[in-house]
Every structure is written in structure tokens, then in C-alpha cells.
Amino acid sequence: MGGLLFFGKYNSIVDYYPNFQLDYFKKSSSLETDWHDRISTGDKDYPELNVFSFYLKVMEKLTQSIDSKFNLTKNMTRDSYLKDMSRAIREALTNSLVHAYYGSNDPVKISNYDDYWEFSNPGDMKVSKEEFIHGGNSRVRNSVISILFRRVGYVERAGSGGPRIFDATNKYKLRTPDIHTTDKDTVIRIWKFEPMNYYTSRSKDEQILLKAILESGTVTKSTALDKLSMTEYSFRNAVKSLMDDNIIEQVGKSRNTRYILPYSDEAYIQSRKKWLVEINDVFRNS
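Above: the chain sequence. Below: its structure as C-alpha cells.
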């Protein structure tokens, strides 16, 4: 069945999986109804799409949508932004195809928006978010598809996809990827810009708070007044506005009150990543 999904003809696949559906959409935003570009199984322009041919066509589209920018390393050499981000996108795309539950009524859906790429597949994530981010532990839903991707050279060792995604986005200081998983589906979102680029419409005081949270994972009233030079009035108004729009949330009460980004957002994931790095350093030096 894995070989059929990977290399088979479309009509043969739907004989066994009647709801087999792979979709790629290019839109300006998720709010847009009309798409600029589409690749879809069953479409007259793509009559014989299987998992592998879909991967090849979509990967080409995604790679073309990567900005051609670069960073300078300490040695003043060019980092390969295109190469690193292509690898991150490749890992997310193969992850969606390898871990999809093809017996579902829902499609595998890859979305390319102006500000992020989104990879959605039916089926829950077989490892925890922490295990996915840190890597080294892999539980594959479709083992044959995973093996075939490795045999053709598009997937490296199992359990390395998550770290490659997070290492690439962290290297170029992009907003940290979002991971959402339920018992029905899994969604990975890779953002294209730095975190503060998404908050340029907020007030100056709100941006000050958000920057502090992004840097340290949390902010308190005392920190805002003492280190950020905010007044109590500006702090209170900024917090209320950000909480009303569900951008930050309050944790604790009274003197222990602090403000963070929601659990699934970058503050939690980034703090988790830093913690894991620190633990590794301790073991390495012990």
C-alpha cells in the first residue's frame, strides 16, 4: 500500500483510498478565497499525481517562493539561506506526506502564503512537540513511504526533521515555527520573517513588551517599569490591548504575575529549545 501511494497511478490509488487528496495552494493570505496557483490530485492538469510526483512538483513551487537573501557569518562568508530554508521546507513537506493518515476524509494540504508556509496532514503527531523539536525519536505512520523517501535521497536519518526546521529558522532569526496537533490532524507553520515583523501595527509600548517577551520568554510588571522604562499607565494599557487580542496571556497571580505568548507560540518553544541546548552543554562539559 505504501508503494501504491508513493509510485502508483491515481485511479489505482483511489480504488483503495477513495478520499485520497493532496492539495497545494498559493494565496496571499489564509483569508483569501481565490488562489494564485494550485496543484491538486484529480485535477485535469495533474491527472496522475501520487505522493512522489506531488512532492516533486510542490517542492519546486515552495523553493521558488524563498526570498533570495543571505546573512554574513563571523568569517564574513555567505550563509546559504536558500539551501537552509529549502532543507527546512523539505523536512516539513516530507513529514506531512510520511505521517498522513490516508484513510481520512481530510486532505494533505500545503499552503504557501505571503508570510508563512503551512503543512497540514490528517492524523496526530506520533511524538510530543518536545521530541519533535529536539529530534532523535521517530514514530512513523507510513514506514514504507518513509523508506522510499530515504532511498531516493529526499529524507535523511529518522527523527532529524524537527531539529533541521528549528535550526534553520533560529539561524536566520525568523519567527519560531508553530506546531499544532490533535487526534485528527497535525499542522506545522514555518514563518518567513522575523517575529517583530508581524507586530508592526501595534503601538510602541506594545512592541516594547512583545520584544521583551520574545527575548526572554516572559515579562513582569516590575521588569517593564524598571528595565523597560515604562510607566504603570503605559504598561497597563499595553497589556490590556495585547490580552484583548489574545496575543499574550497572563500566568500566575499577585506578585507572581507574568505575561507570556500563548503556549503553542514561539515563547514556549524557544525557551524549550534554549533549555535543551543548556542541558546538552552541561552533559558535554561534565
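The mean pLDDT is 85.
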